[in-house]
Specification:
It is a single chain. This protein is of the alpha/beta class. The protein has two domains: about 55 residues, no CATH class; about 190 residues, Rossmann fold. The chain is about 30% helix and about 20% strand. Helix 2 runs antiparallel to helix 4. The longest helix is centred in the N-terminal third of the chain and has 15 residues. The chain starts with a helix and ends with a strand. The structure holds S-adenosylmethionine. S-adenosylmethionine binds next to helix 7 and strand 4.
Length: about 260
């Protein structure tokens, strides 16, 4: 095999995407240059990528990027690969305040920074703070930032002591420690995936401490596991009102929005 067509005709996993990476061409260009013969250096790089993909490395960790909302983000093995489900949080957050309001937003567990950066990029007047426990993830988020965001390292609210926000938003780890789905996620950082035996340890801390960091009528917006919504509503009931639930594009329960009680 040495032409683009030869490779495209093979049943290698994600071969068209891998060719776009190696040859720096889009998929349409692959078709129009189908008889191009790869150089031996290009074939070597492609073979390395084919092997990595065959070993289970997610394509985004090979390309080092992932699209989210209207932007492309750098990702590394220190960060979760952004999921399309999380775009739901952006859709909801963008409805809460007008573009011109100088509101204060906190993104807890920012990872590659997708939530904080997307919101700040869409609304330059919003003042966004983003935190993560992982130094390495925060470095990736800082590299991704397109606008002025305050990044801080520490566990949940620790780095924002005595700061108040109009919206606290988070896609925390929410998978149970012994969940069988983890077998398919071995390339991503475990600290971005699991949260105790019931998957709720991070969500509990966030829900219990958010009231001390929210302005009057402030919002808490959370992503959660498909089977966690009822428990989360119970946890929210003491301090929150106007609780709204949302499904993702697969019709799975995926997000909750709640407003601080007066
Ligand atoms: C599910 S990932 C979400 C990353 C990113 N917000 C996204 O949606 O792609 C959860 C993130 O929470 C961070 N995290 C885990 N435990 C934490 C803690 N105790 N305090 C702050 N962040 C934490 C992880 O490092 C990870 O980046």
């Amino acid at each position: 095999m040495n032409t683009i067509q030869d490779y495209l005709s093979s049943d290698t996993i994600d071969i068209a995407l891998l060719l776009t990476l190696v040859l720096n061409k889009n998929t349409a260009e692959l078709i129009t240059h189908a008889d191009y013969c790869l150089t031996s250096a290009e074939q070597q790089t492609l073979q390395k990528f084919i092997q990595q993909r065959a070993d289970g490395t997610p394509f985004s960790y090979i390309s080092g990027t992932k699209g989210f909302y209207h932007l492309t983000f750098k990702v590394t093995t220190d960060t979760l690969i952004p999921r399309p489900e999380t775009e739901l949080l952006i859709d909801i957050a963008l409805t809460l305040f007008s573009k011109d309001t100088a509101c204060q937003i906190l993104d807890l567990g920012t990872g590659s920074g997708i939530i904080a950066i997307t919101l700040a990029d869409k609304n330059p007047h919003w003042q966004v703070v983003a935190t993560d426990y992982s130094h390495a993830a925060l470095e990736v988020a800082k590299a991704n930032a397109t606008s002025n965001i305050q990044f801080a390292q520490g566990s949940w609210f620790e780095p924002v002591n005595k700061q108040y926000f109009d919206l606290i938003i988070s896609n925390p780890p929410y998978i149970k420690e012994n969940d069988t789905h983890l077998k398919a996620l071995t390339f991503e950082p475990i600290s971005a995936l699991t949260a105790g035996q019931d998957g709720l340890s991070g969500l509990r801390i966030i829900i219990n401490n958010a009231p001390s960091h929210l302005n009057k009528n402030g919002y808490l917006l959370l992503e959660h596991g498909y089977d966690q919504q009822a428990t989360i509503i119970k946890l929210l009931a003491q301090n929150f009102t106007n609780i709204q639930t949302f499904k993702d594009y697969n019709q799975q329960n995926r997000a909750v929005l709640a407003q601080l009680k007066n």
